[in-house]
Amino acid sequence: MGNSYTGQLKTTRFEEVLHNSIEASLRSSSPVPRPVFSQLYLEAEQQLSALEGGSRADNEEEEEEGEGGLELSSPPNPYQTHPLPEGCCTIDGFCQAGKDLRLVSISNQPIDVPAGFLLVGAKSPSLPDHLLVCAVDKRFLPDDNGHNALLGFSGNCVGCGKKGFCYFTEFSNHINLKLTTQPKKQKHLKYYLVRNAQGALTKGPLICWKGSEFRGRQTTAGPCSGSLFPLLDSPGPLAAFSSESTSAVNPSIPMGAQPAGPASDHLVLTTATGPGLFNGKESPKQQQLVKNRLSSAVPRPSALGILSNSGPPKKRHKRWSPESPSVADGGGYPQGGGNRAKYESVGTSCMPQVGLVGQASVTFPVVASGEPVSVPDNLLKICKAKPVIFKGHGNFPYLCGNLNDVVVSPLLYMCYQNSQSISRTYEQFGASTIQPISEEMQLLLTVYYLVQLAADQVPLMEDLEQIFLRSWRESHLTEIRQYQQAPPQPYAPAPSAAAPVTSAQLPWLAGLAASSCNDSVHIIECTYSLAEGLSEMFRLLIEGKLAKTNYVVIICACRNAAIDSCIAVTGKYQARILSESLLTPAEYQKEVSYELVTGKVDSLGAFFSTLCPEGDIDILLDKFHQENQGHISSSLSASSVTKAAPLDISGALVCTRSSLEPHHIRPFQLAVAQKLLSHVCSIADSSTQNLDLGSFEKVDFLICIPPSEVTYQQTLFHIWHSGVLLELGLEKEHVTKQRAEQYVLKLDAEAQTKFKSFLQNSFQNPHTLFVLIHDHAHWDLVSSAVHNLYSQSDPSMGLVDRLLNCREVKEASNIVTLHVTSFPYALQTQHTLISPYNEIHWPAAYSNGVDLYPENKKYFGLSEFIESTLSGHSLPLLRYDSSFEAMVTALGKRFPRLHSAVIRTFVLVQHYAAAMMAVSGLSRMKNYTSVETLEITQNLINAPKQCPCGHGLMVLLRVPCSPLAAVAYERLAHVRARLALEQHFEIILGNPSSGITIGKHFVKQLKMWQKIEDAEWRPQTYLELEGLPCILIFSGMDPHGESLPRSLRYCDLRLINSCLVRTALEQELGLAAYFVSGDVPLEKGPRNEGLESDPEKPSSTDNEEEELVTEGSTSEKRSPARRERSRSHDSGSSCLSSKASGSALCGETSAQPGGPSPGQQTCGPSEEGRAPGDRQRLRASQGPASGSSRHSPGLAPKPDTSQRSVQVPVTSLSQLSCSSLSSASTGPAAGALTLQAAQCSLAKAGQQPPAVFLPKLVYDMVTSTDGSGLPKAASLLPSHAVMWASSFRPLLSKTMTSTEQSLYYRQWTVPRPSHMDYGNRVEGRLDSFHPRRLLLSGPPQIGKTGAYLQFLSILSRMLIRLTEVDVYDEEEININLSEDSDWHCLQLGDPWPDLELFEKLPFDYLVHDPKYEDASLICSHHQSVKSEDRGTPRKPEDLYLRRQTARMRLSKYAAYNTYHHCEQCHQYLGFHPRYQLYESALHAFAFSYSMLGEEVQLHFVIPKSKEHHFVFSQPGGQLESMRLPLVTDKSHEHIKSPTFTPTTGRHEHGLFNLYHAMDGASHLHVLVVKEYEMPIYKKYWPNHIMLVLPSIFNSAGVGAAHFLIKELSYHNLELERSRQEELGIKPQDIWPFIVISDDSCVMWNVVDIDGGGERSREFSWSERNVSLKYIMQHIEAAPNITHYALIGMRKWSSKTGRREVREPFSRCHVHDFIVLNVDLTQNVQYNQNRFLCDDVDFNLRVHSAGLLLCRFNRFSVMKKQIVVGGHRSLHITSKVPDSPAAVLPAQYVCAPDSKHTFLAAPAQLLLERFLQHHSHRFFPLSLKNRGHPVLLVDCYLNLGSQISVCYVSSRPHSLNISCSDFMFSGLLLYLCDSFVGASFLKKFHFLKGATLCVICQDRNSLRQTVVRLELEEEWQFRLRDEFQTANAKEDRPLFFLTGRHI
């Protein structure tokens, strides 16, 4: 037999059992035979035997007998061993075979240790200085945390080699421990043994037996294996899951509401199916047989302890242990604590759970003192309740006898122990003298607490813990403050001088405390042991002397100055609640089913029949039915016909209906969706690279929901109507509801197949981002390990863990998991997978008085319901039914053996039946129902009569237990049928596992209201029951996210379990959550309503839903807010005051322009559900609507508040009054008939939430607050699946935000072993969060579904946006100034230019790049004679407008920035398997250059993976050169030209990832960076080669970078030529080209031409995206390529026309992306000082040198708009600190020696900027004078768009335009060199008055230049015409001299 006493009756014959028992007792040393009855149970199911190997279970019985028989004797005897066989060795330290076991002797000997065994050291009392070596199976040893040791023992002797010791008792005898007490492995196996470096066996770490006394059986299947099979260990409570030892008990449960959970030792009875069982119990006959046989077979009184189905006693105890509570009453399912399944079992429940034994290392007394206490017979019958006994301090006696009638719990004991461990928090401060609270003080405080409890209150362990905590803090306040503020002291301060309570004083003080409570707390003082006190208590109970006593405190204070104590709860109310709260949901339903099946409830029905003086209610019903059958049927048929069709507008009322608006999202939901998106982006932006959003092209999703058919249909409806499938591109047009089914997964037995296809889909589509949404995420948190044990019982258990936490989901980089729940607490533990940074909480509506998200609806949730009880409502929305509670309490005393859920259900159904009869005419039945139930029933039945269409209200009747729900349904349906009310309202049984079933009549009504033509249509969600008068009996232990319609008027929760867990409580109350019109304040004043307590709900839709204004109605939008609640006064029928205006009643809205009637209301079903996001109607094309549909209040004119109503005709239905009259009338008392309004209940549904009825206990819990004003319910244990990490925790605060609450729970709660997160915490690793897991939490019914569907939409849009870039899209400029060239000299389809023809082409001096639109026009001989009007008309203000861009989808050949991380380019970016990330080296490279006047020192940062591109003197040595290919290389696998990209300020945004652009081809790419930016670029681009410019260029412009790139490349070309010349390669064969590319080039295109003929002007063309590899290889393959100096391409534009692509090649300027021949351009340099237009300047130099520039017009480059870095980083600021004024371009230049403010910018930049904006000050004649340009010598400078220039080169043999025809208006000489002479300048002609500007480095050079060039001959200079850039002297300003031509 195993160690688990849960299971089924054996089929073995009784004689065989008896024989086995006798045999076992002979083998045992115990004189007490094992009771036979305990062997009638299989002690383990099949799974358990599989857990620990086949033989373990069979050996447990022997272990149990072998280890412990005598422990029970009282007083205990010394431990007795078996007599030793003769000849055995008995020497200490040797085994019985005589082999030495001492560690010192055998430490160096080889020892054979079997697999799975460990060597441990055992301590012998007789050899204190030695360790004895033993080999023990490690399964029976604890892990490092003191957990997971199996009970029992398995070991080998290392001396003689004997194996197979199954009991430690036997083993200890063999190794001669010679113990005087019972052998225990925990006590004697002390150390692990390890081998040191020399191989010798030495003493290792201590074996951590912490908490071992409470460990139950663990399995290899997982941490939750034992959840249904608790094993009892003798010294303490069983903790089958105590692998995590915590210090907390669950304080939120009632004292004693303790399931047989981890800290409990209650026995468990699972479903029994053996033949000897009757519904899982022994038949009474069988019980009697067993009793009779036992009475003779087991004469000792202790044997009584196992009678009455209490299960076998635990191991080593032959009677009931102190930890063994009783079981249920004999005839029913177990009701007490004895047969409780663990909470870690099948499902979550409304039952509280007990925390595990914690850090206090609680040890229960090993030995009980005193004689056993016999529980008297008939205790339950006499007391009417089972006493619940809490073990307190010290020893607890054994109980025997009628154990069914008591419950014993160790919960209080653990609370005491945990509260004594709180001072450990301060041990880190050295606070060794801070003592825990004493036992005496604990008990005294407990008495004080019990005394102040009211008669209807139940004690809460949480309250008691807080009392202990406060008391301890107050008593040690000084020390605590000292340790909190000061560093640790070497010695502790003196202890407090306060006199402690002594054990002698305790009874007297306790009695004194209890003396004022009218005997509700009774103190019993014992002399010797608790046994006498318990006996005394039982005697007093039997004698009825404790009738007024709720709590009995038993104190024994004589035991060696220590105390024994226990507390018994004897109050009938408290004891019943505490004992019932121990049942798990499965047991609860099982017991209720048993009571229903066995007919135990018949006595209840019989009692009800005696209450009615006229006889049984059924007799009355039959009599009523017969009397009224004919009359009712005829009147009903007539009325139903009348109701069936709305009357016409000839004067009768017509109920119009509101209709759908176009779909829209509410502000709150949009805000939440954006927050979700922000969190996803932050994951992607983090450096962990857990999510690469750039690699995804689309979004897909799967929504996982609980197995509820209604929730399933509801979610399908959401998806269908949200349009998300179309927006995500997952479906095409006309999405059907069936197509949406593949996106919703119901977590039932079929879920795994669908989920596998989802995983397969995600694997096959790596570029799709899959969002796995886990809705209602607090449901089913059971670990899959638990499922593995109990998969047969419930296949869906643990499904969430198996699916959502599977390895595939965790590792898939394209799956993001989003948990969505209203109750996130169980996902906010110390072990959670969700990072606190990945939590999204629903935003608060207000912050600092600001309305953050303006809504025309106000959410009405739990806090608002609670507020309604405090805000002056005479009948608040949250109520309890006192008469109902009183009747339940009375019946509970009368029927103590019935579960209170059964009693409550039967009473409530009786009340509803009586109320129906009372409303139907049997008015005398009012006395047999409660006022509240009568109110509900009246309004339910009468509401349809107030509406022409028969719209009514919904009553939600919550019956968690499914069997009871079925009973309620049948009973109410029967009563309805007998009263002929079938046509008045429907009764619906709502079961999660099935759909909605309603009668044909009501289906017909719904279809008529909703204008549905489909003959097969049936309502599938509760939302579709809008307006249907019905009672919805809502069953299931937990709601599964079902939304309820707006017509819900009453939420009857009187039958919910008194579940004192926050999640369960809030989940039930969340059913009533509601949206009300935001602008209408709820009435605060008192009302005189009589029975009609329901506040009116004027019609308005649920703000999230949609209404369309269709034809026949006005489109005018009205505010829903201007309506007033009326008071109703009639107690006999539903009092519905009219707020309907005449126009509304007539179906036509004819509101006045001055303001519509504020009361104008619709009287039809709303087109939306109550729950936000739940659009109710299934058809958008549904019928006419009133004009009073809800829209934004701001869109309508304010209603005229003076005009309250419009007169309407009085009809026969009722007398109408306007809302103002109704509101103002004070009315007679209840019962009097007043003016009534005929108004549909739906018309009022929007302004008032439903009324909620609660059990009294829950009501008190919800409405009571703590000191901070926080509702007490919020301080409860957050969920069944977790437990408190410590009792030493602060309380939640009312001011805490959701984020702070989350952090609180993350710190103070831990998951139970059955929780799926239990095994998440990895040892030594704190960060155990999953990177792609998010949690969205928000109040129930607030619109979370709509929010996450909106999130999917905007996520999809963002991904599309991420795959798009803004590229410049500008038309080329100066096209109309170009003369048509002889274009036909080149053929249309030429792939390459013909060198001979190309050389004949004239060079186009005009700049066509649109970025130079504001640059000076360059004149040539072509334009020399052109008139002024040829220019493009430009407005100066247009030049600075934002440049035009176009949004383009990234192709597969795009260049990327640092945010792109796809798998293909991991290696490219540095994730190379052969090289460590960031592994690179810095190499110096020097060359001399005369222009700089010194040697240039450059540095290369070269990653290890790129070193093959370079030549080193030796591996790792001096860098010698960069390898260059040969011109003759024809490889298609690599690009020959090295690419250089100068960049600044764009380490994140620069497009340096060319992997895809190069189509994976090998290429050499070098980033050219400034010295100070090198570290940041290296961080972002660790695998890129970097050329680091010298520090002198830190403030230089792009010209310096271009200059150094070109000079370095030429120097490298010479090095390579000399290196390869030694290898026999000709110098001219070395590849001379490099690429200089901007860092914003993103994509490249090619134009395909389809010509009509070789020289035809007719052709068609198309443009396509190609890779940069394609373009480069095409260019590099061009014939005679080495004859071209510069090659470029067009800039892309969508406006490109035929003219641009007609010529395949042009000889013109090239920009942005150039292929440069460094060999040909050896003598042409970039200007290293330039910041702007340096490429235009260089192009002109190259052309004037006679070299060829070729632009491939069929190729184009797209440039991305990057708004950071580049030239934008060039800021010009004042050197004066904190100068607020902006610096204008006019201030860039000043007079020399002036007191002008100097600027912090390079002189060259100031010069270029000044000339760009203010050159007209120097060249006034040149302004808008294109015929007379300014002459520029050797340098192009931008003088602004209104001044034209002419460029000439002074170099000999250079190509210049013919200037003989020009008269220049100015001359600019910029740093001119010796080539510029006086004779050169005399060639040019200037206008009279033309101006000259000479620019030099200093004033001296300026004068020398004037003299050298003989300028004073033709130019006149003045002293005041000298200027300088606004630089300080140390910044080397540039100097100007201007003059006029004479």
Q: What do you see in this structure?
A:
With 1942 residues, the protein is α/β, with parallel strands linked by helices. Helix content is 25%, strand content 16%. The protein contains 48 helices and 57 strands. Helix 29 runs parallel beside helix 31 (962-978). The longest helix has 28 residues, at 617-644. The N and C termini lie far apart (124 Å). The relative contact order is 0.06.
Tell me, briefly, the overall form.
elongated
Mean pLDDT: 76
Question: How far do the termini sit from each other?
Answer: 124 Å
Determine Rg (CA atoms, Å). Answer: 46 Å
Share in β-strands: 15-25%
Number of helices: 48
Percent helix, as a range, is 25-40%
Secondary structural class: alpha/beta
The major beta sheet can be summarized as: 12 strands, mixed
Total strands: 57
Low-confidence stretches: 1-15, 26-78, 211-369, 486-497, 632-653, 656-662, 1080-1238, 1424-1440
Short description:
Helices cover 25% and strands 16% of the residues. It has 48 helices and 57 strands.
Map the helices and strands.
Layout lengths: L13 H14 L18 H6 L4 H11 L36 H4 L10 E8 L2 E11 L17 E3 L10 H7 L10 H4 E7 L5 E6 L70 E2 L2 E2 L1 H14 L75 E3 L3 H5 L4 E4 L7 E3 L5 E3 L1 H10 L18 H13 L9 H15 L1 H9 L20 H9 L6 E6 L3 H13 L8 E9 L2 E8 L2 H9 L4 H13 L4 H10 L5 H28 L22 H19 L12 E8 L3 H14 L1 H4 L9 H4 L3 E3 L4 H14 L3 E8 L8 H7 L8 H6 L2 H5 L3 E7 L17 E3 L4 E2 L2 E2 L5 E4 L1 H7 L9 E3 L1 H13 L5 H20 L11 H12 L11 E5 L3 H17 L7 E5 L9 H10 L20 E5 L13 E5 L9 H8 L4 E4 L64 H4 L73 H6 L26 E4 L1 H8 L18 E3 L13 H11 E3 L21 E5 L6 H19 L1 E5 L26 H6 L44 E5 L16 H4 L10 E10 L4 E10 L6 E3 L6 E4 L16 E4 L22 E5 ...
Parallel strand pairs: 8-10, 9-11, 12-13, 15-16, 15-17, 17-18, 18-32, 19-32, 23-29, 24-26, 24-27, 25-26, 27-29, 39-40, 39-42, 40-41, 45-48, 52-53, 52-54, 54-55
Antiparallel strand pairs: 1-2, 1-4, 2-3, 4-5, 6-7, 9-14, 13-14, 20-21, 22-28, 30-31, 33-34, 35-36, 36-41, 37-38, 42-47, 43-44, 43-48, 45-47, 46-48, 49-51, 50-56, 55-57, 56-57
